[in-house]
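User: Some background: our group keeps a shared notebook of sequences we're curious about, and every so often someone picks one and asks for a predicted structure to add to the entry. Today it's my turn. The entry only has the sequence so far, pasted here. Could you supply the structure so I can complete it?
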Amino acid sequence: MKKITFLGLSLLFVLSVTAQEKKVAKEVKKVETEQAEIEKIATENKSNSHEKKVAKAKKDHDKKVKEGHEKVKVAHKEHHEKVTKAKSYVSCAIGKMS
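Assistant: Of course. Here's the predicted structure to add to the notebook entry:
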């Protein structure tokens, strides 16, 4: 009788350990799947972040180029006005000399 009870208890113990192992295996698989999803999202966010930084840098660069072009236009206009004024002074001075 004791042998049967001992064998029965041993069998129950083995079955419970096996059931726990299956539970643990399921949990491990679930955690690994979640980890893979997290890594995928992190990679996407990293690439999105890089794309955003590149877009911002391009926008900033374009803005600086546009500002530079405006400065050049203003400088050309001022130079043209100064040259025109100087030409009129020279013409006036030549007229007074004659």
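Suggested note for the entry: The helical segments are 2-97. The chain is about 100% helix and 0% strand.
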